[in-house]
Amino acid sequence: MEHGFPFLRPGMTVGLLGGSFDPAHMGHVQISRAALKHFGLDRVWWLVSPGNPLKRHQPAPLEKRMQAARQIMQHPRILISDAEAQLGTRYTAQTLRHLRRRYPGVRFVWLMGADNLAQFHRWKDWRDIMETVPIGVLARPRDRISARLSPAAQIYTHARLKGNSSHLLAHAQSPAWCFINVPMVDASSSAIRANGNWSATQQC
Ligand SMILES: Nc1ncnc2c1ncn2[C@@H]1O[C@H](COP(=O)(O)OP(=O)(O)OP(=O)(O)O)[C@@H](O)[C@H]1O
Ligand SMILES: O=C(O)c1ccc[n+]([C@@H]2O[C@H](COP(=O)([O-])O)[C@@H](O)[C@H]2O)c1
Predict the structure, then answer these.
(1) Is the keyword NAD in the record (predicted)?
(2) Is the CB of residue 65 less than 8 Å from the CB of residue 20?
(3) Could you tell me the residue ranges of all domains in the chain?
(4) Which one of 31, 61, 138, 172 has the minimum C-beta count within 10 Å?
(5) Under 8 Å CB-to-CB from 6, ≥6 apart: which residues?
(6) 13-194 has which fold?
(7) Is any ligand 1 atom within 6 A of the Cβ of residue 27?
(8) Tens of pLDDT along 102-121?
(9) Residue 93 CA, closest ligand 2 atom number
(10) Is 19 close to ligand 1, i.e. is its CB under 6 Å away?
């Protein structure tokens, strides 16, 4: 299911991995599988963003990114979604407000790689996000230390669940976040773009 808003039962746990996916690669695939397993999630949705509000460069057209994402990520519990384009949202706090209203009783968890935690204090209404939705952070090469020392991690140090309690995250009272050290894949969209070849996504 790539379009629209699929049925979710109240009580289900859904990880949201927002990203430009410009293009999607094996790093995204790896952390999504790891998130399903370690955070005990029923579903993961890839929220393919119309455009990151903090990035200057314009991503490839949304439909092209969606198609590449569908090709590389095929899993019965992982959905490729253009929900943000449909909702007309760009900021994560706004997207979360819409989804929580649309799906009362569903437990959403925001997922991010360690590099995003390092930047998280620059996001619009980031404290609101932290205070309303549990956050699952997945290790990424070179970013583990900067993430742990980041303003968000420091300010919310009291709200951190240990990695060995990661399965409790989706049902934890916010603020709650959990960093998990999972096997890492050293892939990035920017490296693939620098190669000048989107088909590199299939070779990871
Ligand atoms: N190799 C990876 N390991 C862990 N997390 C990753 C990895 N690649 C991407 N992520 C995470 O996936 C989410 C979406 O990433 P995004 O689509 O921006 O890809 P990216 O490779 O980080 O792109 P770019 O290189 O253009 O910044 C972010 O939370 C990011 O931290
Ligand atoms: O809401 C914000 O201020 C905000 C700032 C930066 C990034 N984000 C979100 O973070 C996710 C990862 O973005 P990106 O471009 O690094 O893949 C994506 O869903 C963005 O919309 C959100």
Answers:
(1) yes
(2) yes
(3) 13-194
(4) 61
(5) 79
(6) Rossmann fold (3.40.50)
(7) yes
(8) 999 999 999 999 999 999 99
(9) 1
(10) yes
